[in-house]
Design a protein that fits this description.
The chain is built from eight helices and five strands. By secondary structure, the protein is α/β, with parallel strands linked by helices. It has one domain (4-152): 3-Layer(aba) Sandwich (Rossmann fold), CATH 3.40.50.300. The chain has a five-stranded parallel beta sheet. Strand 2, helix 3 (72-80) and strand 3 form a beta-alpha-beta unit. Helix 4 (99-108) packs across helix 6.
Length: 165
């Protein structure tokens, strides 16, 4: 059991991460920026996104990428058309069947992302997708200033000390 102290630390860390993500979105203001938000729980992703939308002065749109997608650029272009949202969140990468192909094609199209999209693009990833980005698309991964974490990875969970009441 992870105890009360660890729960309080988790809330503080999540709040700080939300503020960091909100600040990065605001700073990008009308320019392309790639942001990676790492969270291993889709429920927690949704909770964070709800809080972010509630408190952010920026209108944040969201796309849940279909499992059959094979390119990120085309999926985004199809969903947003010619509009340029203030910020765009991409969720559901963990459910994409051909995720390796999608990552490689996104890496190849990274210059088009910057040319065509004039808004911050937030990719929600889990630890597995993040590892794949590092191995399959290091150039794309390097575009992201940092990875903003919203939960503990499995190694950190294993090291968490139980605190009894």
């Amino acid at each position: 059991m992870i105890g009360l102290v660890n729960s309080q630390n988790s809330v503080v860390n999540t709040t700080a991460a939300i503020k960091t993500l909100a600040r990065a979105i605001i700073v990008a203001g009308g320019d392309f920026s790639l942001l990676l938000a790492c969270c291993n729980s889709s429920k927690r992703q949704q909770d964070v996104l709800s809080l972010l939308k509630e408190y952010s002065p920026v209108d944040i749109e969201e796309i849940i990428i279909p499992p059959s997608s094979d390119t990120l650029f085309t999926t985004i272009r199809t969903k947003i058309g010619s509009s340029q949202p203030e910020a765009l969140m991409i969720r559901g990468l963990e459910s994409v069947t051909a995720i390796n192909q999608l990552i490689v094609s996104t890496n190849l199209m990274r210059d088009e992302l910057r040319k065509q999209f004039h808004f911050p693009l937030v990719l929600w990833v889990n630890d597995d997708i993040l590892r794949r980005l590092v191995w399959l698309a290091p150039d794309l991964k390097d575009w992201a200033a940092c990875t903003i974490r919203f939960d503990l990875n499995q190694a950190q969970l294993a090291k968490a000390e139980p605190i009894s009441a």
